[in-house]
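Tokens for NADPH:quinone reductase-like Zn-dependent oxidoreductase. Go.
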Amino acid sequence: MRSYHLDSFDGTGFVLREHDVPEPGPGQVLVRVRAASFNKRDRLIVEGRYPLPPRAGVVALSDGAGEVAATGEGVTRFGVGDRVVGSYWNRWHGGRLDASMIDQLGCTHDGMLTEYALLDEGALAAVPAHLTWAEAATLPCAGVTAWTSITGGAALPDGATVVTLGTGGVSLYAVQIAKALGYRVIATTSSPEKAERVRELGADGVVNYRDTPQWSAGVRELTGGLGADLIVDTAGPDTVAESIRASSLYGQVVLLATQSETRADVTVPGAAWAQTMAEIRRVFVGSRSDLEDLGKLVESAAIRPLVDRVFGFGEITEAYAHYVSGTAFGKVVVEI
């Protein structure tokens, strides 16, 4: 079997190695991986900027899907041939995250950029029946993050307005999930072309943040001055001030990033916050239970995750370069 490893974290990339196919032990499942996808956290790991120290030599990428090739003694959740996807936090099965669960695929535990992955059965969820391998491989990080951003806080009112920022993987998923749940969506983006594409995906309104740098004013105009019930802030901390200004009186701002290229800390504008009762909430992907709940919605609503481009296993350099270029509209996937 072949796997791509990360031996150093200085941006130099992926190292291909060959190994024997492992044998699953008690409670373990051997997955024949069919596709894996990139997320922002993978770039941060490759470049040595990720807050959780990765293990040297770790197999890369948190997100991947495949079929069960073999099971170890005592496995009851899956059988050979089942289509499965790995959970981002492989030991966080449900409830609240605690210190005993700090173990991530592609970081502290071998990830999914490999022909075969060996995982505990508790780290796997079923793949929605209608998804391709490439689509399924996008669920665990971006999909679950969007899901917990929208559903993980106080219940939103019927017909709530959800704001998404930009056209990254989480934001595009958030548009699809929010629409499937019956909410109104306002998306921010940077060009008329992207505005049209995000409307096609389901957005009810779009604000161009290049034309309107204070895009919160555009959100308020589209909501009759009331503001949005939920802002999924994927661009923070640079955008936190505008997100608060775009919030309704008792809205929620979901903050996914706490540092950026230009800011090392989150600064909350006192004047803006004084005018609202908005809650700022942190999300760090979600548990296997969240992944399973997302899968149920994806299946019942027939959601098709947006895939920008699929590369071959031998094209990892080209795939990563395309991902970091920032030109993708949808997920970048490697078929295995």
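The first strand starts at residue 2 and ends at 6.
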